[in-house]
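Marked as duplicate of an earlier ticket. Keeping the data here for the record.
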Amino acid sequence: MGAQRTTIVNLASLPEWQVRESRNVSLNDVRQWGIQPLVDREYGVTKVEIRTYGKANQTLQAVVETTPDPSSAYGLLTFYQNESMKPGRGMKLAVIGPQQAMMARGAFFVRVMRPAKMPEENFRSALVAIGGAAPSRNSLALLPPSLPAQGIISGSHKYVLGPVAMKRAVPSIPPNLVGFQMGAELQTADYQLNGRPVTLVFISYPTSTIARIRFAEFQKGLDVNQKNGAGAIFGKIERSYVLLVQNAQTKEVAQRLMSRLSFEEQVSWDQRPPGKPVTVQMFELIIGNIILVLLLVGMAVLGGFLLFAARRMAARWFPHSDWARGYEDSIIRLNLK
């Protein structure tokens, strides 16, 4: 994916809520908000800012983390959400819990502390004022495909990009089997099936070849599809995806859960880079090549003219030199015996 240009959302888009204070901090400075610095660094967080918003005599505090792209901010949202949080009514990529709310907005992951005496509806309205009701359509288009919603246990969905988050999200699977260094992206969620929680692990790889190699490693390391009963893991490979199911009572139950996923080949186009349109750049490239060819031809003609002029000058000033006479009158002697 090419470099993309992301503009931070206006975190005080409505006039009644204004930024009263803003300061940059480190991840270690905001541990009390529930942030795990190692995890956030793995998702690529490059900047952390604490903002205080005010409206009349009310205040709200928010932590804004800058990530490389919308999928990283989305990953942080899924990693930190839990069963005590509920989706914000009328909002996308926003969850509200007893103590704080979380939102993914473009390449920014936002936490907002919830005041103890603020009614829920007022808090939700404040969140819309701070981060908007939803991310932009361009940001949503860059997110990974969704897992099936039917039967999913609230707060269990995680989108993982590295081994640190993997150890916390799916501790039963060794991260080295996944192969994050090969471009793996992992999603996991718990589902309620036949009265029991069942875990689905969905791993995306850049190519089907890599997926086949990693699935073979899962078969060796986890005995995938090789036993039944407690602790059994079932799975399959589909194109460039690997699916694993844990805690299923039977292989049929696991297959029923895996069959809920539909696989489509997706093509992700790089966002248009800033600057001149591609057609203009191609035209300038062609013109540049033509100019270069003309310069080379001109230099060759000039070189020939200079050589001719040098011969004429040598004939005038040094008439007996080889340079002036050339090699017409030269005698070549061969000592052959």
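See parent ticket for discussion. The chain has a mean pLDDT of 85.
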